[in-house]
Structures are given as structure tokens and as C-alpha cells.
Amino acid sequence: MNRIKAGSLFFATMLLLTSFSKPDQPDPAFHLYLLVGQSNMAGRGIITAEYRDLSQPGVLMLDKENKWVTASHPLHFDKPARAGVGPGLAFGLEMAKANPSVRIGLIPCAVGGTPIESWQPATMDPATKKYAYDDAVVRLHIAMKSGVIKGIIWHQGEANSKIEKFSGYLGDLESLIGRLRQEAGNNNLPFVAGELGRYRDNYKLVNDQLRQLPGKVKNTAVASSEGLVHKGDKTHFDAASATEMGKRLAAQMILLQR
What we know:
By secondary structure, the chain is of the alpha/beta class. About 35% of the residues lie in helices and about 15% in strands. Strand 5 (about 150-155), helix 6 and strand 6 form a beta-alpha-beta unit.
């Protein structure tokens, strides 16, 4: 009888401990990537039939409601009427190809039109009325409950490509990388930036800054925009070029991770 009581007490205690235990730990085989920047990261390429059904079960995205769903174009929802093909999905598919034993989770957080000055804590972008950095951090932490953050990709700079706006860009980017790495809990988290399109002379101002990044900040790389074209507006990559940029971002990410 005493043994029965002792056994009952043991199981009751274990049940109590279980009820207060931590939730399931993040899945180490679920690799997360933060997608940040402005409209060319968000994607403005036209979604034709070729891109509409492009997806893979092992490549997921954190949607507007912070739910994991199969990733497909458009990934972003910053400006729903304009959202289209961006580099994010191609990036995710390439990372899945390189790591077939894991799932890939994309965290889309780009906001079209935002200068780098708007990517700071507690800063509202005056044009979009959004807190780009704060919103990205919130979504990053939500995603990290499910998986492990493995890298950040960044495409931004069109809004800073003026003589009066590009000064200090590299320093601002260095600070942003440091803050995001701190939020991710990894001071060596791989970070890859994409060059701006080479179809506007003034974009060279930011591209020249970006090319200095790997020599200034550890474990960073830059994906080339050579040969990529715009969709007719001299600002946004067309769908094919956005897709190619995603592949180039992935190639650089893989090199950093190795």
C-alpha cells in the first residue's frame, strides 16, 4: 500500500513539474534567415505564371499573422498592392538545396522606401509610418521560438543614393549589423548584403560603401549585381534579376557558413 502511495506521489509530482516545464525547444534542423531592407528585398518583380507556383514544402515563411506557411511569391506584405518577385524565395530554395537535411524558414521584414536611418530602434519611418527595425526584431524573436537563426540578408540603399544622404552609410550599416546580431544572440552571425542595380550612376555611391563591408565587419559578404536589370522603372529588379540576386545572396551565405 505504501508503495502504491509512493508511486502515486511520484507520478503526481512528475505531472506537476511537466506542467511548468519549458515549451518545446527550437528545432535545430529549422534554419532561419532574416530578410531586411527596402523594396528590392521586398520584391517588385511581376509575378507571372513562371513564378506564381514556385515553392517547396521544406521552405517556409513567417506570414503577416506570424504563422509558418509554405513560402511563395510574394514573400513580403509591406505594400501589398506592389509586392512581387523578390530575391528571398530564390535565396531560400538555394539554401534548401545546399542543406537538404533541414527546413528553411524565411522571415520577411523589408519595408519599401525606407532609408537606413529608419532602421534604428524606436524610429518611425516618416514616409511609411512603420517602425521597420522594431517590427523586424519582434518577428525575429517570434521565429526563433521555432528554429535557429543562421543568417541575415540585406538589400537596401536606393533611398540613400544621393550625395547628401550616403555619407556615413557604412557606419550606419555596421551599427545595424551589431544590433541585429545582439538580438539574435550571435555576434558572428553571417550577414550578406546585395549590391544595388548598376543601371543608375548614383547607386554607385552606396555600392562603393557596400564593397568595403567585408573588410570592416567580420563574417559579412556582398553579392554582386553585375548584369542584373530593372523592370522598366530604373529602380526595381525585374523578376529574373531579383531571382538571380537571391541565388547570389545564397552563394555568399553558404561561403560564410563554411
